Amino acid sequence: ATAIRNNAGGAWNHAFFFQIMTAANTTDSALPAVGSSLRTAVETTFGNFSNFATLFQTAGNNQFGSGWAWLVVKADGSLAITSTPNQDNPLQKQASVQGIPILGLDVWEHSYYLQYYNVRTSYTVRWFNV
């Protein structure tokens, strides 16, 4: 069961991750690139995009070892930021916060080591420029 969870989770997480990635953003904030309903939900939940970005980066930076940071829509329709270890994700029953992922950040070293070495915080900050 663990091997299936790791392999299936890895396939799903990475397919999702690469699907949400786009060309470099030329504005000061990624927020204008999102739809108005998501923008409103982010601003209502987190105050503004800057607060959201800080909380999202912190979730990724504080994930011990390999894993993911997530922005999810919970069953009640609210937004939440969470993180998961390894190849787990918020769709799985063992997740501390369950929900439908709408943004995911890969914080495995393979996603940033060649450019940022072991400085994950530089990666999570710069990631918002993509």
Automatic annotation (TrEMBL):
It comes from the Eukaryota. Its EC number is 1.15.1.1. GO terms for molecular function: metal ion binding; superoxide dismutase activity. It is an enzyme of class 1 (oxidoreductase). Keywords: Metal-binding, Oxidoreductase. InterPro entries: Mn/Fe_SOD, Mn/Fe_SOD_BS, Mn/Fe_SOD_C, Mn/Fe_SOD_N_sf, SOD_C_sf. The keyword Metal-binding applies. The keyword Oxidoreductase applies. Residues 37-130 form the Manganese/iron superoxide dismutase C-terminal domain. GO terms for cellular component: cytoplasm. Gene3D superfamilies: Fe,Mn superoxide dismutase (SOD) domain, Iron/manganese superoxide dismutase, C-terminal domain. Belongs to the iron/manganese superoxide dismutase family. This is superoxide dismutase. It comes from Pseudococcomyxa simplex.
